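dumping this here so i dont lose it
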């Protein structure tokens, strides 16, 4: 996969973070830039570790369970992961969880860490898919850090200025990007 496809996949996964940050940004009275920087750093490191761990786990699975001639199985697993992550985002868009609108004085770092722990499960799965696709790990780690920081900041400020009504669009957009990646894996790697 080329770097543009990798960016689109990471953007699809990161749109979940964007939606969560948008909800939190809609609740704060004022965005504290120092606190936002700490949150960006923590979430970026967490996502980086999840993606690296997923890539490592796919390497273990590939070496131990799949014969090198059965690369096809790894490609199918990668496509299934992308489609599954997209379905999860659509389910979140349909569910449209209610946000308890009460003003908070600042961003709660503990709340962000809990949210990031849940989101990192899906980043771990994306890392497994990337491992099966044989992508460049260093490039993926750079992209995940940059995209996570960008989506956290954009999400907080979008919520702060516009409210949280755009979260459903973020979920649908992320699902579409992941489905496009799944179709790309099928067309370019499996059907060839």
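and the seq i came up w/
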């Amino acid at each position: 996969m080329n770097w543009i496809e990798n960016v689109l996949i990471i953007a699809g996964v990161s749109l979940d973070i964007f939606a969560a940050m948008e909800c939190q940004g809609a609740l704060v009275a004022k965005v504290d830039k120092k606190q936002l920087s700490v949150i960006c750093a923590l979430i970026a490191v967490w996502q980086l570790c999840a993606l690296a761990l997923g890539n490592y786990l796919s390497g273990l699975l590939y070496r131990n369970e799949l014969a090198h001639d059965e690369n096809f199985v790894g490609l199918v697993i990668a496509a299934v992961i992308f489609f599954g992550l997209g379905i999860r985002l659509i389910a979140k868009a349909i569910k449209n969880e209610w946000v308890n609108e009460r003003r908070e004085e600042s961003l709660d770092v503990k709340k962000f860490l809990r949210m990031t722990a849940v989101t990192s499960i899906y980043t771990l799965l994306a890392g497994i898919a990337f491992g099966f696709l044989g992508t460049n790990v260093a490039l993926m780690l750079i992209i995940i850090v940059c995209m996570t920081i960008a989506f956290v900041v954009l999400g907080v400020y979008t919520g702060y200025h516009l409210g949280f009504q755009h979260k459903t669009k973020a979920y649908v957009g992320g699902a579409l990007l992941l489905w496009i990646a799944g179709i790309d894996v099928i067309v370019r790697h499996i059907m060839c």
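The chain has one domain: 3-95+106-190.
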